[in-house]
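Quiz preparation item.
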């Protein structure tokens, strides 16, 4: 540190927070020093939020510039309990990049996800270890900026499980609360429901080959090494299925300011649903 004492710009990333927060603080400082405006995407306390989108407009009418990538994910067998491993192939203009991701079990409220770029050869070798209990996930991933905030649209494509047909999810990272997030969302997208943290809309669960109730032991409620009882597991899977079905119903309206609550009672056909 003594060597940097007289430098006009010295920033210290200390150990007062978890690893992910330190990485975000580092990136946040770099983009600020270089004058790049990325909103609060890399702020230390940034979190990912996720919304279901309906009624996508044609590409020619999309009002802001965007970049589309064709993406396919494969989940792999994992030798360690509670770990999720997957491959991603992302293609743009005929050129592909490959990524290997390991998502580790939640520990003290923190989930660590390690991503590593790999070669096409490594991708092909690892693909031999794919988990056939999961279907490959095909998406068009659309990245765009709106009001200095980066967004991603994940548009699920065939071939896919029937639960994914027509599904479009909007994701972004933010430090804002739910009300502020909803008020700042792109107005040209029809947001149906806030599904942040809802396991019914996690890619891991959406890719399960069999019906959820027939494979309740595979359904991941949260990335944790703790075991749930079998009865509780089946009950939670049934609730997740109900939430997914209700979102797909055309005339169902939700309060998009309200994020997922695991203890919330499922909505029945006779129940009233809040509108925005």
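Solution:
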């Amino acid at each position: 540190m003594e060597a940097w004492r007289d430098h006009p710009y010295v920033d210290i990333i200390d150990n007062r927070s978890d690893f992910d927060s330190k990485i975000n603080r580092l990136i946040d400082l770099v983009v600020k020093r270089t004058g790049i405006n990325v909103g609060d995407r890399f702020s230390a306390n940034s979190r990912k939020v996720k919304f279901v989108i309906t009624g996508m407009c044609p590409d020619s009418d999309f009002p802001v510039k965007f970049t589309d990538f064709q993406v396919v994910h494969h989940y792999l067998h994992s030798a360690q309990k509670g770990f999720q491993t997957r491959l991603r192939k992302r293609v743009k203009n005929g050129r592909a990049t490959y990524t290997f991701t390991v998502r580790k079990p939640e520990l003290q409220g923190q989930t660590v996800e390690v991503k590593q770029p790999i070669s096409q050869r490594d991708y092909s070798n690892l693909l031999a270890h794919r988990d056939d209990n999961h279907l490959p996930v095909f998406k068009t991933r659309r990245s765009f900026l709106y009001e200095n905030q980066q967004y991603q649209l994940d548009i699920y494509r065939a071939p896919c499980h029937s639960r994914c047909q027509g599904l479009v999810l909007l994701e972004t990272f933010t430090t804002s609360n739910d009300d502020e997030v909803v008020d700042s969302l792109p107005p040209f997208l029809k947001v149906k429901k806030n599904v942040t943290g809802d396991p019914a809309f996690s890619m891991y669960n959406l890719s399960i080959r069999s019906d959820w109730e027939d494979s309740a032991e595979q359904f991941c409620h949260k990335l944790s090494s703790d075991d749930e009882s079998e009865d509780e597991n089946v009950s939670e899977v049934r609730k997740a299925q109900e939430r997914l079905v209700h979102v797909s119903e055309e005339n169902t309206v939700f309060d998009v300011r309200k994020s997922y609550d695991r203890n919330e009672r499922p909505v029945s056909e006779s129940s009233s649903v809040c509108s925005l």
